[in-house]
Design a protein that fits this description.
single chain; Ubiquitin-like (UB roll); five-stranded mixed β-sheet; 3 helices; about 20% helix
């Protein structure tokens, strides 16, 4: 639950155009314990990318619930839509 004052570290990984926009492929952030991926997305203003097909993988699970609190050492990957031919 949020508000405990404890922190967790989460690794964020960016791919494709998002990595280019942010100038980073990977960053580590400290978050208050209980922070969800949805809150993380809001904090980094990534909601517009979700609307255009960005997928989020939490600890390797694509489509994981974005409203579940992130654990310490979680890995959150932001995956651009895949175009096929």
């Amino acid at each position: 639950m949020a508000g405990t004052g404890r922190a967790v570290k989460v690794r964020m990984m960016f791919f494709g155009p998002l990595a280019e926009r942010l100038g980073e492929r990977e960053i580590e952030v400290a978050l208050e314990q209980g922070t969800t991926a949805e809150q993380l997305i809001d904090r980094f203003e990534l909601s517009e990318y979700l609307d255009s097909g960005l997928r989020v993988a939490i600890d390797g699970h694509i489509g994981a619930s974005l409203d579940t609190p992130l654990a310490d050492s979680s890995e959150v990957a932001f995956l651009p839509p895949v175009s096929g031919g």
